[in-house]
Amino acid sequence: MIKKYVGPALVLAVAAIYGVSPVDIVPDVVFPVGWVDDAAVIAAAIGLAVKLLTSRKGSGRQGIE
Predict the structure, then answer these.
(1) Looking at the domain assignment, is residue 65 inside a domain?
(2) What's the protein's topology in the membrane (predicted)?
(3) Which helix (H) or strand (E) holds 57?
């Protein structure tokens, strides 16, 4: 049961580290663009984590609509 949460937790942890890290694709000193790339990475990570959590086979949610 814990294995189900390892992948999504890892995705969110890496995104959080990227968000606070001073090393970015676009530095945060480039004000609007630097913050937007951080927000995009975090939003994508949240979306991926939700997708991983809801699309697991054998999660006991088959047949529930």
Answers:
(1) no
(2) Multi-pass membrane protein
(3) none
Which has the closest alpha carbon to 52: 4, 2, 1?
4
**How many independent structural domains does the chain possess?**
1
pLDDT tens track for 29-58: 888 888 899 999 999 999 999 999 998 665
Flag whether 63 is in a domain: no
Say if CB 19 and CB 41 are below 8 A apart: yes
Which positions ≥6 away from 58 have C-beta within 8 Å?
A: none
Calculated CA dihedral for residues 32, 35, 36, 41, nearest 10 degrees = 170
What distance in Å separates the CA atoms of residue 47 and residue 50, rounded to the nearest whole number? 5
Residue 46 lies inside a defined structural domain of this protein: yes
